[in-house]
């Protein structure tokens, strides 16, 4: 999960949005590029969410993965914009018929940024360390591994205790990144990877700077330098775009995007960011499925999408980009009358519920929900907290009634199979069914059959109304003329800029 | 004088010690912890516990406090829980933005407040004096955030004279760019703080007008303005210094806010994000240094007062 980029100073943002709207007619006239690609160019990308430190093995966070994966660090495999698993340090791999043994053929001529050679031993050492040290972020992901061994200098074999359909995908995340076994780099503030860029500088609270790694084993990066400029306030980010200091802006607020139109090309990318309104099934009267369904019936998803300005409706736990997606709009509709009837049937009136929401999200979401719930006779008290408080109260202690949070991780359906997760299903029969279906899906060796089982499990979850999936976020990316190949999909967790070129 | 200074230094040290305990205690009341932030929403409870143990957060609070204070006394503010960076060197790095910002803000505030305050006092009752007072009242009431955004719209976006946000990556290696980056934020704080200071200068000037020695001077043939400038203002100067002490605290607070608005990598911005991430060792160090700064400014002003004002000297 990450904090959705949203203004800390919302009131100020509204004032500035209006003011910038007035002023924008005079802003940002881009120079016309001549068309020649400049290999010495610097690419400056404006982002909202900065990594908290650079130790990708020991710190979770979408911003960290977004910046460092594929650019600085590489895994055996990586993933394309559409979520498909693609080769990286492993040029090729085979999976045994029983789905338990993965044999990876490694790329040759790979070196770490400090000059050390990349070997099969590095793969074994890294994966063994990650799966045995509980404080490592990748630790849970690698528990399926029984053994990792180097067959020869260029081949690594991984044996799983049982087949795991998700295993290769897990290797595309932080759990699968490969580090130099003998490295002594302080990973909190420096980096030593095999990727197309070298970490040049980190100015905390401001920017990350990468430079092209000249000895890179693959195709050299398209630009000489990359600056990830972190500008948390949505309006300040747009202002920086307008004053010409950025080549690309990611995660632009839909409200503000029109200010950039003309000077930038606006692209809308898909993400796996799910805005989940979770209902605590342990708390009365939310333990009554009729009450949960009534709340979902009261939510006008079209109105939310219209206000958010970009994104798509999502009626179940699986977003479009993930395996097992199907349209579950038949499981719920917008029907305030039916909601009122159900609440009456459940015998609740004068219901007041508390919504715990992190202050990193725009307040209009809670305001919209409060008015929709008020329409069916439910009072919504909005408790706005810091993200760290949310993590403590809601995530760790499940001490909440309603919670709203943006879960960005791709393929995170397994949260619905964790009985201790903050939004766990209370209905034992349904929960057991979901668990069994998902476990079966993971054991499948055929991806399609696996996806089919996940879809079935997702339907069971959706019909329990444990949460409402308000929407899947779309990422608005503003790209200046002359910038080519900038990724636009799933950029909140992965932003590979090695192919990007700049024309002058 | 020496005895007075020594007493004040002892009080200052005591103040800092109390502040350190309050800071340490107050931060421990905050819900959530950095281990949870590090583990994120994929982290298991066992993972969070492992991270807590590794960071030493599972030790008794008293032990953590004593170790922290011990470090501070030997000049070591500790290391960030999140990044491992030294708190001291991070503070030094960020101070290179915040201190120039504060100084520039103060200069702007003074440059506005002193002449305009005196003019508005001299012209009391006349339309120009009233207009100045009203404008100062209005500006002093403007929230710093709003003032900043308005300046951005006018000077950065419409006119394009100054950058809308950020600090040059080269830092002070490029002094012109660094100063350009600080101008709008400093102007924002300077105008708002200056408006408050101006009201004070005006009332202090008016008060001086009523003092016997000014009236005596006026009776000897000087005009009221001449009497005020020659005899009244030196007396006003001292009380302005006192108010400046309070203004400096206001500027520190203003810097915390304005660094957010202008995305300046200074101490204020660092403080806000460190609190959010529960990097308590960083926050402790930052707050202690800021508290120390404000206390020391107060101490110096008291000392200056004591040295200049004979009435105070007699009392000790």
List keywords for this structure.
heterodimer, A: 504 residues, alpha+beta, D-Maltodextrin-Binding Protein, domain 2, Dipeptide-binding Protein, domain 1, Dipeptide-binding Protein, domain 3, 3 domains, 11-stranded mixed β-sheet, disordered N terminus, B: 316 residues, mainly alpha, globular, transmembrane helix (chain B)
Number of helices of chain B: 13
Global structural class of chain B: mainly alpha
Q: Provide the β-strand percentage band of chain B.
A: under 5%
Helix residue percentage of chain A: 25-40%
Describe the structure.
The complex is a heterodimer of chains A (504) and B (316). Chain A is an alpha+beta fold and 504 residues long. In chain A, 27% of the residues lie in helices and 23% in strands. In chain A, the strands form 4 sheets. In chain A, strands 1, 8, 9, 10, 11, 12, 13, 14, 15, 16 and 17 form an 11-stranded mixed beta sheet that branches. In chain A, strands 4-5-7-6 form a 4-stranded antiparallel beta sheet, with helices on one face. Helices cover 79% and strands 0% of the residues of chain B. Chain B has 13 helices and no strands. Chains A and B meet through helix 1, helix 5 and helix 11 of A and helix 2, helix 3, helix 7 and helix 11 of B.
List the helices and strands and how they pair.
The complex is a heterodimer of chains A (504) and B (316).
Chain A: H1 10-23, E1 42-47, H2 62-68, E2 77-79, E3 85-87, E4 90-95, E5 101-106, H3 120-132, E6 145-152, E7 155-160, H4 167-171, E8 197-203, E9 207-212, E10 225-230, H5 234-242, E11 248-249, H6 254-257, E12 265-279, H7 289-297, H8 301-308, E13 311-312, H9 336-345, E14 351-358, H10 363-375, E15 378-385, H11 387-396, E16 402-407, H12 428-443, H13 447-463, E17 467-479, E18 483-484, E19 501-502
Parallel strand pairs in A: 1-10, 1-11, 14-15, 14-16
Antiparallel strand pairs in A: 2-3, 4-5, 5-7, 6-7, 8-9, 9-10, 11-17, 12-16, 12-17, 13-17, 18-19
Chain B: H1 2-29, H2 34-39, H3 45-55, H4 61-73, H5 87-122, H6 127-141, H7 144-158, H8 175-210, H9 212-219, H10 224-261, H11 267-276, H12 280-308, H13 310-315
Helix pairs in contact in B: 1-12, 5-6, 5-8, 5-10, 6-8, 7-8, 7-10, 8-10, 9-10, 10-11, 10-12, 11-12
